[in-house]
Amino acid sequence: MTIRVLIVDDQMMVREGFSVLLNAMDGIEVVGEAVDGREAVAQVAALGPDVVLMDVRMPVMNGLEATREIAAMGTDAKVLVLTTFDLDEYVYQALRAGASGFLLKDASARQLAEGVRVVASGEALLAPTVTKRLISEFSRLSAAPRPVDASGVGELTDRETEVLVLIAQGLSNAEIADRLVVAESTIKTHVSRILVKLGLRDRTQAAVFAYETRLVTPA
């Protein structure tokens, strides 16, 4: 199945460059472009992309606000944040707002395509070692962390709690299954139940939740 991608960036060269790279990849099609967050929200509603490559610093409406609006729309579109710096202060806020991961703008064509495929497949924590470091760092350093309702943690079974911790550590479903010596389908079921019980959108939100409630503490 072809992954439909929307590219959002206020720089034409970036949009065109990513478009050329992605359209050259098997199973990926760029279905549209947007120059700012407001146009991105409109394009998501009109085109129904699977993945949105979202810049964070744009005029009219920034990527953070656009990500929040797209997440609130209840669509299946996954937002993959584009940033110049791996510790951009906006990236953690974007993850909080509903983004499924992030990617550096200097990523290679292979990394870009792989990132799109990973996010589209639901393995939302792109580049686990880097994303985990970013989540940990901003969880630890955030001067004013948002209040988090941790009441749902008590509804998780011991195994679900264990799976949640491993998600926050950046492990994929296959890696968690291998660690716990169970079938990958079993882990997928656990993940689905965790998201429902905690009222979360995807794996990335689950990882952020685990850090913010201190279920997992930064290394």
UniProtKB/TrEMBL annotation:
Sequence positions bearing 4-aspartylphosphate: 55
Segments forming domain Response regulatory: 4-120
Alphabetized Pfam families for the sequence: GerE, Response_reg
Annotated GO MF terms: DNA binding
Signal peptide residue numbers: none
Record protein name field: DNA-binding response regulator
Entry annotated with the keyword Zinc: no
UniProt KW keywords: DNA-binding, Phosphoprotein, Transcription, Transcription regulation
Domain HTH luxR-type intervals: 149-214
SUPFAM superfamilies: C-terminal effector domain of the bipartite response regulators, CheY-like
One GO process term, biological-process aspect: regulation of DNA-templated transcription
Record has Magnesium as a keyword: no
CDD domains: LuxR_C_like, REC_NarL-like
InterPro entries associated with the record: CheY-like_superfamily, NreC/VraR/RcsB-like_REC, Sig_transdc_resp-reg_C-effctor, Sig_transdc_resp-reg_receiver, Tscrpt_reg_LuxR_C, WalR-like
